[in-house]
Amino acid sequence: MVHCPDCETSLETADDIEFVEVDARTGFIKASKRFYTANCAACGVTIGSGVAGAKSNGGAA
């Protein structure tokens, strides 16, 4: 079984993970792509991340 490295909660179902979109408005990276972090739903620590492709508006404000 997979556990959160911070709080040791078992990550057994999709409800145990929270996906958060991080983009240029958040100040992470100024680009036209969608970046996501996978966080533990119990404690909020980031346990992974990824890119999900281009935004439909090309990153325009």
UniProtKB/TrEMBL annotation:
Name assigned to this protein: Uncharacterized protein
The species this protein was found in: Haloarcula terrestris
